[in-house]
Fold this protein.
Amino acid sequence: MEKTLPTQPAELVKPPATDIGILGWLKANLFNGWFNSLLTVIVIYLIYLAAPSFIQWAFLDSSWAANSEQCKMAGAGACWSVITANIRFILFGFYPHDLQWRPLLAVVILVLLLVYSRNRSHWRKSLFYGWLVGLFVMGLLLKGGLFGLEPVESNNWGGLPLTLLLSVFGLTAAYPVGILLALGRQSKMAVIKSFCVVYIELIRGVPLISLLFMSSVVFPLFLPEGMVINKILRAQVAIILFTAAYIAEVVRGGLQGLDRGQYEAAEALGLNYFQTMRLIILPQALKIVIPPSVSILISAFKDTSLVVIIALYDLLKTTQTTLTDPKWMGYSAEAYIFVAMIYFVCCFFMSNYSRKLERELDTSR
Amino acid sequence: MNAQVPDKIPFFRDPSKLSVFYQIMTLLGVVLLSYYLVSNTLANLERQSISTGFDFLGKEAAFEIGESLIDYSAADSYGRALIVGFLNTLIVSFIGITLTVLLGTVIGIARLSSNWLVAKLSAIYIEVFQDIPVLLQLFFWYAFFYEILPTPRQALAPLPGVFLCNRGLIFGVPHFHLAYIYAAIAFGAGIICVIFITRWSHKRQDESGKIFPLIRVSAVILVGAPLLAWLLGGAPAEMNVPALKGFNFKGGVTISPEFTALLLGLVLYTAAFVAEVVRAGIQSVSKGQREAAMSIGLKPAHVLNLVILPQALRVIVPPLTSQMLNLTKNSSLAVAIGYPDFVSVAGTTINQTGQAIEGVALIMIVYLIFSLSTSAYMNWYNKRIALVER
């Protein structure tokens, strides 16, 4: 005798209402267990304490286009007018007022180049030359003196263009130096190796500010009498020397990440050292280190703010200068939040990009 | 018949000779460059009639320092002023590192929490505080103290006995009593005790497999010994509570706005990086490890202590030390908000004496000592915990 299965379908049992939909999500993500429930309640209470008063201050009670007297009259709310009234000084510093389209254009070119370079299918030799031309044009726009552009003293450069200049030129110039240092550190020649090791460890061991001090007070002593190098260039050199040591360590990671077989195969082909490096090793090693290089760009971008301490007018210094104006004293929170947002947006896009690259370049999965 | 084999390779084809040649050239280049720089420098110094050497350290400093752990007045020497700065750097780094590790660990774990709200908030915290330059954060907290916080008369009191105003952070401390010194000595003895117990228990565990309740026993010793000493010393409980007198607080301990702003900025910034390090470390331990540990019947606490943590720490400790070093190096930004750390005092010294080279060299040497000792410790630690490959 065989049992037959019942022909009518079994009754469909739906999951309990508390396990699906919004309720289910809340239960799974916010109230799973007494500890998480307690945490959720505490966090929501803290948000409840902080958020309304912040919104009140930043938006509801704030003034956006008032002058300083009106701001002082208005009282409690945020005075964003400190930004709107001084935006040109904060962004461009002491650059001549009617020539400020030039640094603006330079920044726009830089942003366009960066956006275009995001896509890896655009990475060709022509893009590399495009960057060289772009950097040259940016420098020309800032400096002037050619093609009928009025020359502008570099002492008057300031604000966002200076910040970008120091970090982008810094990284561009530091990269070749860093590669040489990394190769030197891997070299079998004892003298060269020891120089590179000492340099890298020395620079990585001291804070950037000591190098900036050096560039501003010690470096002039190194030069022969009568020779003067301007302050921005000296700070730029300090940033390059500093960044190069960090790049060297990153590139070394890439060099060590390569299989020994690559070196041996190149040797077996009869390539000499320079051919091996240029044709076999570096193209592969540099590809590995692209994501950490973006992280170095991010820290270089943040670190340029340190030039405030040797009194260069970068974005942070122009903001501070605005705040020392008696008319706008006391609105530091607003001004610093604005500058923080500029830094945040730039770094956020860069770090997102670095993560995206890491996923794309990771062919192991 | 025989192909003419050159019995000598020309020197420009011989790698070993070339290598010697390159090295000599490099050495020569470096020596020439340093000779050029040194001779320029000496000529410049002579023209500006600045004497070289460290004699200036013994001269009278003639500037005041706002905060000092040791006795200092403007009549003291530059050398003593620099020691004051050095101690200030040490104290801010030490407290900063302790708080950073605590906060960073909490946020790193919160980042992995199954609670959606907590995980998202930690992610936002990490992203925001990593992406804003630490100097800007320092300026912000400094302005927060001087512009946003009220005067002592309207001081905020977040906890009873703790006041927050534009003169800094003020809180009560116990009156001095011998019992506290006894307690401190007992605490030190407790630490030594715990170290020995740890060694003994590890050894016993390796030999017999028996597990000693190390954390609980250590906690009892570390809390109990000072407490006992305090009780035996007479259990003094009198507090030195700050009270408003005139325009400022009297009594208690005042921590200056500069110090608090520096500490806040450094801790909040570095904790974001530490949180990422902790998260990466925990995630690096594969799921199978936890499952395997549970399947051989370990208790949850033992799963964490004996299986997960040892593996996670191996990943966490190296980047964690480099973050601690970063915090120490970033503490040099104190100079921007007027906290008298080593760089700030050295900067003043350079301005007053013109001894730029010696001043900058001192700054570099001090930070090099910090980083070299850290990396020496790191190498020792890495060797100790490295996987023994069989």
Chain A has a mean pLDDT of 82. Residues 100-151 of chain A form one domain. Chain A has two domains: 81-95+152-361, 100-151.
